[in-house]
Amino acid sequence: MKERRLTLNAEKRKAIADVFQSHWEREQNPMRQKHIEAIQNYDAIRPKTLELVNNIVRKHQPQEHVDTIREMTNLYGRSGGELHNDNCFYFQKPTIEVDEDGNEKDSYDEVHIDFTLDPFVDGHTRKAFAYSYYRDELKSKGLDPDFDLKLDNDKTKRNPRYYEAESQVRKYLGFESSNDANKGSTHANVWDNADKIWVIGSSYCHSRQFKVDDTTYKVLQLFKIAQAQVVKTHEQLFHYVENKMQKLRLGLKSYKYFDQAKALADKLGIPLNESVLNESSSMALSVYSPENLASLLEDKEVLTREQKIAFARKQMQQSVN
């Protein structure tokens, strides 16, 4: 008897696409390696930059001056002076600016060094560094660190799904409110409270301009470049995979049977078998099995939206395991 061919539907096509995407993101992706190297480079240059910044600050504001102000504030409160424990700094390199008439005037080049998880990286969305740095961790938690890149700079594409993904990612990283028990352990909070240097002045870091020479300025610029590369390689990684996925999705729409997708996977060296389709289908069946559905329909305390989502995820995870 001729073996019956397995027919595809939208759910099965998505399950197959997920297999391809996972493979391209991890197994055969030169952009992923660049992304990993960018993070490693940032991790290596960060402590060296912190040491350099500390030396610059202490040169302009000696430790004995800081100790004197601390003693004065202990006696007289803010009237004794201001100190701030900071991880945000501005540095200036004096230079000469020439206008269109050939007149020279004193000017400066400026570099902003920020050791928090949300540094300003020119030309990029705020928090883009955090989404990139913790991309793998976010994906392992079922969150979408690429939600902002999917807009392709078109803000009109923002929809409820976008805002939900944004809220979930920001809350996990610690950029949105959370309960006091977990607030101190979030990534954002840990970064905000690490690698700080005592400075004389208020909390407005732009109000403090530390002058540096040309050599020091160039070294500080390397840190900014390292931050930018973490963000840039994330974008490259996303677009590399998404370009392939767009073509794959179009192809899968034209496939009626599983063996067609299997033949494509075999040619590309991507492991694909029918079990992924069974797992995909069983998830919905597990969530709405008689026992689980009965539990949902019983007259109990009304669950919040977040509780319902958590329940569904738990059931789906159990079905996989």
- The dominant shape is elongated
Q: What number of structural domains do the residues give?
A: 1
Run of helices and strands: HHHEEEHHHHHEEHHHHH
The unreliable regions are 282-289
Structural class: mainly alpha
Number of helices: 13
> How many strand segments?
5
Strand content: 5-15%
The radius of gyration computed from the alpha-carbon positions, rounded to a whole number of angstroms, is 27 Å
Mean pLDDT: 85
The main sheet orders its strands as 3-2-5
Distance between termini?
34 Å
* Main β sheet profile: 3 strands, mixed
Summarize the amount of helix as a percent range: 55-70%
SSE blueprint:
Layout: H1 10-26, H2 30-60, H3 63-76, E1 83-86, E2 88-98, E3 104-114, H4 128-133, H5 135-140, H6 160-173, H7 180-183, H8 187-192, E4 197-200, E5 209-211, H9 214-254, H10 258-268, H11 275-287, H12 290-297, H13 305-320
Parallel strand pairs: 2-5
Antiparallel strand pairs: 1-4, 2-3
Helix pairs in contact: 1-9, 1-11, 2-9, 11-13
How would you portray this structure in words?
With 321 residues, this protein is mainly alpha-helical. The chain has one domain. The chain contains 13 helices and five strands. It has helices at 10-26, 30-60, 63-76, 128-133, 135-140, 160-173, 180-183, 187-192, 214-254, 258-268, 275-287, 290-297, 305-320; strands at residues 83-86, 88-98, 104-114, 197-200, 209-211. The strands form two sheets. Strands 3-2-5 form a three-stranded mixed beta sheet. The chain has a two-stranded antiparallel ribbon with strand order 1-4. A hairpin with a 5-residue loop joins strand 2 (88-98) and strand 3. Helix 1 (10-26) packs across helix 11 (275-287) and helix 11 (275-287) crosses helix 13. The protein is elongated, with a radius of gyration of 27 Å.
